[in-house]
Design a protein that fits this description.
The complex is a heterodimer of chains A (114) and B (115). Chain A has 114 residues and is mostly beta strands. Chain A contains no helices and eleven strands. Chain B has 115 residues and is an all-beta fold. Classes of the chains: A mainly beta (114), B mainly beta (115). Chains A and B meet through strand 5, strand 9 and strand 10 of A and strand 5, strand 6 and strand 10 of B.
Chain lengths: 114, 115
Amino acid sequence: DVKVTQSSRYLVKRTGEKVFLECVQDMDHENMFWYRQDPGLGLRLIYFSYDVKMKEKGDIPEGYSVSREKKERFSLILESASTNQTSMYLCASSISSGPPNEQFFGPGTRLTVL
Amino acid sequence: AQKITQTQPGMFVQEKEAVTLDCTYDTSDPSYGLFWYKQPSSGEMIFLIYQGSYDQQNATEGRYSLNFQKARKSANLVISASQLGDSAMYFCAMREGWSNYQLIWGAGTKLIIKP
């Protein structure tokens, strides 16, 4: 089974702190994604990566950056956390071939910025 | 314009009844795929079922089936014989084009199964 793990289930940070969210997948997937989920808005794509060191902006990249130094690991960085970044963050991965090449998700990190 | 629309923010259904969750989509790409995911209260998104735009038959996976009406651009999820464990958020998503890795997501429907 595909396993996608995220470093924390719950995280509380202060405004202005630098925050790292880590995601690891164990199925050699080429693609990895970071989403944020807010009630009534569904999932919004922040960044995705289709290969090591490659990244593309999603719909809401402002205030975030990412890093993918190894194929299995994709990190989301909040350079200076703000209260409007309080949200659920979901990581996903998928293979490149397909269809369907569905995305497999981690358990999510609920981030609160005070 | 919304590319994926889920018109039912919430639904209550009696246990053992069938449930239909609505999803309409908008795309001009002839090649696309439609997905349904379930998100229990634990938070993890679980892939349920997929329908490709060229698939001739409606997709089925166990108790889940997808009522795909291409001309109406709808891809409704049908859950037969609902169970208490089906209580969750359900999301419809679309990929436009086969080489596009991104999914476009609906806002979701919260389904509550009553005993």
